[in-house]
Description:
It comes from Mogibacterium diversum. The chain has 180 residues and is of the alpha+beta class.
Amino acid sequence: MGFYDYSVPAIDGSEVSMKDYEGKVVLVVNTATGCGFTPQYEPIEEMYEKYHDKGFEVLDIPCNQFAGQAPGTDEEIHDFCTLQYNTKFPQMKKSDVNGENQLALYKFLKEEKGFEGFGKGLKATGLSLVVKKMDKDYKNNPDIKWNFTKFVVDRNGDVVERFEPTAKMEEVEKCVASLI
């Protein structure tokens, strides 16, 4: 199975098929409203506005699996994002990205691009310490480690890159721009 064979639940409970994104560059990101990385909504929205007319889509999937940082209802999360960050891209239903109830799409994404580390710097070191407390073997499994992990999918449905939340947003944009 490939990227276009999956679907995810929308806020209204309907299913959004990845076939709807065929021929587009897609950024898939698990988000949270109460996270230190939540300000990444701003550069994600900027990318959306800059590249949307050129075939770029954002698949925003709120997730409450990391320190309970997305505690609200789907509607509350949506209202927060539109009011605080003026987001215009669609948000999906809050869902799990790891474990028994994970979205099938996330199982696929993690199989395509596993965890390769948090990079360097203070945020990377801090996040690795937090994650290690939850999963001592975190370096050796493909699970999503925290909010705002991003996958970039090209126009052919190939998963070309995985960015951990500690990655610079300029690097994410550079990747997206190279595929537009």
